[in-house]
Structures are given as structure tokens and as C-alpha cells.
Amino acid sequence: MSEPLTDEERMTLKSAAFGAVFLVSNAEPGVLSMVKESFAASNAIAGSTGLVREVLTTGGLPRLSAGSPGELQPAEVEAVALPALRRAVQILSVKAPGELENYRHTVLRAGDEVARASDGVSEAEAAMLDKIRDALSAS
């Protein structure tokens, strides 16, 4: 790592990753599914390594919307999370290039695990995973 991540950069990485999980989970909403999906996301994130694991499992709660806290709306989260994923890629490209693939893999794995947690991957979940993949591919 060329220089340490600032608290704001850490929050960007965390908010982007958790935002991506939220978006996949809400692409096909359901109360019972949400429990399975939460466990699936937690396991994927807990299975990460290095700086990515440290950033995603420590510190404050992620910021998932630009508005006031409360009930999150998927459109608001998408407007924050997808740009945050692109920013996370930029941050890691500069400050921790060795962690970039680990981050991409962890976020995509978490999203994929969430989509598969309940009745397989729906069209809506697959479409959201494509959006996430596109954001993570930005350079």
C-alpha cells in the first residue's frame, strides 16, 4: 500500500460494498429471503482477506443513502452505491493496487451469494449484479 486509507476512503469502500449487497437483496425483495441473504452476505464478507476484510468488518456503519437515515429506498441507494463502487476502484488503484482484485471478488461474491440464497438468481438480481460488475470494472 502506497499510503494508508483515510477514514473517508474506508467508509467509501465499506458503503459501496454494503450498498451493492443491499441492491441485490432488494432487486427481489422478501422478508424471509432477507434473513437468508443477510447470512449469505455476512459469510462472503467474513471470508475476505487482508485490507478488504479489515475495512469491511471494522469501523462505523456504512452510509447507504444521501438522504436522512431511516427506511432505505433502492433508487437512493443505487444513486450512492454505484458511484461509490467506481470511487472505491479508483481509491484502491492508487493506494492499494494489490487489494483491488480482492475487493472486486469480495463484493461480487457477496452479491452472488445474496442472489443465490433464496430460490436462485432472478432476472432482476442478475441485472443488478451486471450493474455492480460494470461499476467495479471502471478504471
Tally of contiguous helical segments: 6
Judged by helices, strands and strand pairing, the structural class is mainly alpha
Query: Which percent band covers the strand fraction?
Result: under 5%
The dominant shape is globular
Give the tally of structural domains: 1
Biggest β-sheet: count, sense, barrel? Answer: none
Describe this structure in words.
- With about 140 residues, this protein is an all-alpha fold.
- The protein is about 70% helix and about 0% strand.
- It has helices at about 5-25, 30-45, 50-55, 75-95, 100-115, 125-135.
- α2 (about 30-45) runs antiparallel to α5 and α4 packs parallel to α6 (about 125-135).
- The longest helix has 22 residues, at about 75-95.
- The radius of gyration is 14 Å and the shape is globular.
- It starts with 6 loop residues before the first helix and ends with a helix.
Task: Please provide a brief summary of the model.
By secondary structure, the chain is mainly alpha-helical.
Layout of SSEs?
Layout: H1 7-27, H2 31-46, H3 50-57, H4 74-95, H5 100-116, H6 123-137
Descriptive tags:
139 residues, mainly alpha, 6 helices, globular
